[in-house]
Design a protein that fits this description.
alpha/beta; Nucleotidyltransferase, domain 5; seven-stranded mixed β-sheet; five-stranded mixed β-sheet; 14 helices; about 40% helix; about 15% strand; globular
């Protein structure tokens, strides 16, 4: 990886001072922006002292030209809630936001520096997503907490790219596979499961799935996410809001009667169940299927089928050496989905469900590892981890 610029001296000094402190119950504020809400969590050690969701007006958000233009509006609403709850920012040791809008980078915990903030602000990866507000909000609150700033991080952002070289290849010269995944939740799920079986994440091989509005299926080999689908690029299984992989020739025909904008929308918002059934509500789809809706049953079954097919692909990537298949995200609450995946895939490895998400917990844990000296904070340069092969 390319050398990275150091964070500002005051923040670096804050990190060193925190590491030297005898107090181990670090107070960390985690911030996770979503499309019309921002989740916040205040942690002391592993204990969550406060978990709240700040709702934002969709009508107000629609008035902003870019995602980053929402920053003052969201910041002020979050600050009002923190004041209402009596949270004193000066007592917080570190701030961490969900990353986004960054160039492809290896996984880990990154100190927020000026380059990272600049890339997040403009969405340097070409994708406008609320996640890019995470680092900006964390930075704002870190400055409110102390004139010199407090330690401020992002952890395993969606731009995490640890693909092996073969996973990058396509059959078109100069065109490569890229990856956007639910990296934060995928890695946290793997870390938690490894701990539950008395092992380190770095000593295990897992296939980890995040099953939600978008679906990530990934291969983790000894602590690195070496393959997975691009959920922002129309890759992988059908999902509630995403089209999944579609043959190129079919999309060429589609573009004869539809705009490029419509086609891109299928990758992130209007594909999958939305296109097939007019809803993104997976519970509604499953209920409709149970009551005889053939189209709903076919769409649901196709989603599960494609999840399993992708799991099989990742098993081959790992040469069949798989410690467990882990299912996270909101759809993992469905016992029917979990049992369907298990019936097709448990011959590969045990299938274990971790319903829901651990994003706030994962962000706080990453910050704590740095403050405890268990990990070194990584430094962001804005140089993509991969720009092509030399030969």
């Amino acid at each position: 990886m390319n050398a990275q610029p150091a964070p500002s001296a005051p923040v670096a000094n804050e990190v060193r001072a925190a590491q030297q402190s005898p107090r181990k119950q670090w107070r960390v504020l985690a911030i996770n922006p979503g499309s019309t809400s921002t989740k916040i969590g205040l942690f002391e050690g592993e204990t969550c002292l406060l978990s709240e969701t700040v709702r934002h007006s969709a009508e107000k958000l629609a008035t902003f030209a870019t995602v980053s233009d929402q920053l003052p509006y969201r910041r002020d609403q979050i600050m009002a809630l923190l004041n209402e709850k009596g949270v004193d920012l000066s007592t917080i040791d570190a701030f961490v936001g969900r990353g986004g809008g960054l160039q492809a980078l290896p996984g880990g915990t990154y100190a927020v520096n000026s380059t990272l903030l600049h890339d997040a602000q403009r969405g340097s990866n070409g994708i406008q997503h609320p996640a890019q507000l995470g680092s900006q909000l964390a930075h704002e609150f870190a400055l409110f907490a102390s004139p010199g700033g407090k330690p401020c991080f992002v952890v395993n952002p969606p731009d995490t790219d640890e693909l092996c070289d073969l996973a990058r290849m396509t059959g078109v010269k100069g065109v490569y596979r890229h990856v956007h995944l639910h990296a934060l939740n995928l890695k946290e799920t793997a870390i938690r499961h490894a701990k539950s079986i008395g092992k380190r994440y770095e000593d295990c091989n897992f296939i980890v799935c995040h099953l939600g509005g978008g679906i990530s299926v990934s291969a983790h080999q000894h602590g690195r996410m070496i393959d997975g689908n691009d959920i922002a690029g129309g890759d992988g299984p059908i999902a509630p809001t995403r089209c999944g992989s579609v043959p190129v020739i079919e999309m060429v025909d589609y573009l004869k009667t539809h705009s490029e904008r419509e086609a891109l929308g299928l990758c992130m918002k209007t594909g999958g169940f939305v296109s097939l059934l007019g809803t993104s509500d997976a519970t509604e789809v499953l209920d409709r299927a149970a009551h005889g809706d053939k189209a709903a049953k076919r769409a649901w079954d196709a989603m599960v089928y494609q999840i399993c097919k992708c799991i099989g692909e990742m098993a081959c990537v790992l040469s069949g050496e798989v410690d467990a298949i882990l299912l996270g995200g909101g759809l993992a609450h469905s016992t029917q989905l979990v049992s369907s995946v298990a019936s097709r895939c448990e011959w590969i490895a045990p299938v274990v469900a971790y319903p829901g998400e651990f994003e706030l917990e994962a962000m706080a844990a990453g910050a704590r590892r740095v403050l405890d000296g268990e990990e070194q904070a990584l430094e962001y340069t804005g140089v993509p981890v991969f720009t092509g092969f030399d030969d």
